[in-house]
Amino acid sequence: MTTAAIKPSAGVPNWLSLGIVFGLVGAASILLWGPIGVSGTYPRLIGEIARVLDPAYAAENPYLVRMGSLFRGETFLVVGLLIGGFLGSRKDKTKAPKLENPHAGVETNGKRYTEAFFAGFLLLFGARLAGGCTSGLIISGMTQLSIAGFVFAAGVFATGIGTAKLMQAMRLGAN
Amino acid sequence: MTNLYALLTGIAMGFLIQRVRASSPAMILQNLRLENLVIIKFMATTIAVGMIATYTLNLFIPELMHFDIKPTYLVGVLLGGLIFGVGFGLGGYCPGTCVVGIGEGRRDAWAALAGGVVGALVFTLVYTSAIQPIVALLDFGKITVQSTLGLPAIVPALVIGALFLVVVKVLPTQIKKA
Q1: Is the Cβ–Cβ distance between B42 and A138 less than 8 Å?
Q2: Which burial class, exposed, middle or buried, applies to A98 when counting CB atoms under 10 A from its CB (0-12, 13-18, 19+)?
Q3: Predicted confidence band at A8 (pLDDT cuts at 50, 70, 90)?
Q4: Which of A106, A114, B67, B70 is the most exposed place for a label (fewest CB within 10 A)?
């Protein structure tokens, strides 16, 4: 990767170089095997577990049947994310915080875990309803000029910005 | 070969997400509060470069491309996006960035991942009763900008890509000191 161009000195990540490289990676991905996507791996994991615990249910649920086996490219991509995140963090001077409070005001560890858990629930429920997440619909979808990608992105940023502003107002009001 | 290419794509993607700090919930929330636009500009640049590169490749080697257009069932896609956005604004993670976050040692990323697995489980359980009726509404199929406008794909790819790059160039990166 062209990491030589990335200078953390200013404190602001070099979004332009990183974005250009990511765009080229996305195009290479469509050329070599298919568009990037992450969220489908979650129900495929559910499917693998269901096929062990309750094979009859797994064979009958139309969604699990449609999503198919976990042993496919996208799953390897998700494993790659884990490795890539680890490799990226090795270049940081300070380690990533174990727990980060992204909102205004004071937050306890318990509150942060609960918040992250419910956030994860909504992310996957919403992504599976829409048929993709930030990678599959926003990045890959808009890259391929799919209308669904533009519609999904509009929805995400409408409530994403709204929720962020609301959390800020609530937390500042409570302190 | 597909699995190897996918693994390498994932490693590159995870590395880039970590370096731009998209796996930091604090950074995501700064973007959603519109205090800085680092991640929004990163995503817009990625999409612009991606669409121009993809449809340029498609001019020369269309038979080699692995396109996979997602269907536009309008109600489900929009509703899904609205629900997803609440999770994004609440937790500061995405289904992929929490995996990157686990890779760099973030513990709250595990909570987001666990919530995601439970979310996918509940989705699976209510699929037949609640989801199938929604995704059947206003289903336009695999439509794209080029299919809607009746243009060669390279035209909207260049126009929208250029537009995104201009907007990214014009917008400030830091709006408010966090």
Answers
A1: no
A2: exposed
A3: very low
A4: A106
Please say whether the beta carbons of A84 and B104 come within 8 A: no
Angstrom distance (rounded) from CA B3 to CA B24: 28
Q: Are A62 and A75 in contact (CB under 8 A)?
A: no
8 Å CB contact of B160 and A101:
no
**ipTM for the complex shown:** 0.97
Tokens of B18: 């970590």
- Cβ-defined contact of A121 to B99 (cutoff 8 Å): no
Contact list in A for residue B94 (CB cut-off 8 A) is 38, 123, 133-135
End-to-end CA distance of chain A: 44
pLDDT tens digits, one per residue of B64-75: 999 999 999 999
Q: What angle do CA A72, A126, B37 make, to 5 degrees?
A: 95
Residue A39: closest C-alpha in chain B: B95
A69 touches chain B (CB under 8 A): no
Q: Rounded to whole angstroms, what are the CA distances from B63 to A32, A92, A165, B144, B155?
A: 12, 41, 46, 19, 19
Give the tokens for residue B141. 């199929």
Pairwise CA distance, residues A24 & A44, whole Å: 28
Report yes or no: A45 and A70 within 8 Å, Cβ to Cβ. Answer: yes
Instruction: Round to the nearest angstrom and report the end-to-end CA distance of chain B.
Output: 45
pLDDT in tens, A95-145: 999 999 999 887 899 999 999 999 999 999 999 999 999 999 999 999 999
- With an 8 Å Cβ cutoff, is B161 touching chain A? no
